[in-house]
Amino acid sequence: MANSTALIVTHAGAPFRLESINRTPLQAREVLVRLKATGVCHTDNAVRTGKLPGAFPLVLGHEGAGVVEEVGSAVKSVKIGDHVLLSYAFCRTCGTCKQGKPYACVEMERRNFSCSRPDGSCPLQWEGLDVHGCFFGQSSFANPAIVQESSCVPVDPSLPLEILAPLGCGIQTGSGTVFNIIKPVENDTRSLVVFGLGGVGCAAIMAASYLAKQNPGVLDVIIAVDLKAERLELARQLGATHSINGQEHQSDLIEEIRRITGGVGADAAVDCTGALSIINDMIVALAPCGRAVTVGAPPLTSKMSIEVFPFINGCKSYRGSHQGDSVARKFLPFLADLYQKGEFPIDQMERSYPVGAVNEAVQDMLDGKVIKPVLIW
Ligand SMILES: [Zn+2]
Ligand SMILES: [Zn+2]
């Protein structure tokens, strides 16, 4: 047994507590990572509060970045001293993993959200109790963290880990949805609407803005939708060409999107809110052949109904995505490179906090005072 410092949640709804906890020995395909920073995501808080399922006591955290300190006996893809960004875990052996789509691994649920190792065991202990972990394959609210090898993405050691830590979940999801799924094409994808401007939505705006600059005739209209004026202002700074305050357009959101897009509707849309009424509006507000993507998670078991006929006549499509269809090993270094070139200014939406201030960081995120808190170890 060795010690880690961890933000532990003793039961659903309890605040994070900074404690010294014990960690069990590394398994063959695990890596011990000395963290520099961990981003805070809404999903951490949703599990903490019991809105999404968890198992307690629990260590959350799923946007870690640090340096490899030890490797399990079967680890091949990282070595001691490597700088790594952490992302989701996957099995490598299922059909979708073999097709090069680890973001849709058939074991996604078990390996990322079961709050246990793949073999069902708990990686941590505290005051004689088993502590659940392995959240998103990493539970990077513990330092050092026991991380699944598949979650590790080696990056250039010169990169600033304190800024890039959040790439592995929310930012990858938002930007990946634009780069990997919407893949805007000239004269075909002229407009995009992004609903909800947390870290995911802002990352989608940044990716869209980058592509619009690189490719004339693509995404000349980028519409940001949110309920908060400050967030809309930030979205403008990040490249949105139009903004809609959902408070002011509760009853005519669809009409407003149509007005901005010359009456036709949006060629592409991303929902990052998970609100069913917004998802419905998103689909209705699509242009003919428009494509809508859901990344925001509604409450579990949510169901939705849409009017089918306009969907058929308009040749619209609607799909979900986990992590923006991103293969983290390739995509995170690409995003890090864009950041270094000044083309992907994620630091504009981040604020750093000492690890002990995690509860304040979460509250600031919920209050909309900060979009992406980053805990510094
Ligand atoms: Zn798999
Ligand atoms: Zn997340």
Question: Any idea what the radius of gyration is?
Answer: 20 Å
Shape: globular
Low-confidence stretches: none
Q: Kindly report the average pLDDT value.
A: 96
The helix content, as a percent range, equals 25-40%
- Number of helices, where a helix is a run of at least 4 consecutive DSSP H or I residues: 12
CA distance, first residue to last residue: 21 Å
Beta-strand fraction estimate = 25-35%
Bound molecules: zinc ion
Q: Can you put this structure into words, describing what you see?
A:
The protein is built from 12 helices and 19 strands. The protein is α/β, with parallel strands linked by helices and 377 residues long. The strands form 3 sheets. Strands 3, 5, 6, 10, 11, 18 and 19 form a 7-stranded mixed beta sheet that branches. Strands 1, 2, 4, 7, 8 and 9 form a 6-stranded antiparallel beta sheet that branches. A 6-stranded parallel beta sheet has the order 14-13-12-15-16-17, with helices on both faces. The model has no long low-confidence stretch (mean pLDDT 96). Bound molecules: zinc ion (ZN) (2 copies). The site of one zinc ion has 5 residues, from loops. One zinc ion (ZN) binds next to loops. Belongs to the zinc-containing alcohol dehydrogenase family. GO terms for molecular function: oxidoreductase activity; zinc ion binding. InterPro entries: ADH-like_C, ADH-like_N, ADH_Zn_CS, ER, GroES-like_sf, NAD(P)-bd_dom_sf. It comes from Exophiala bonariae.
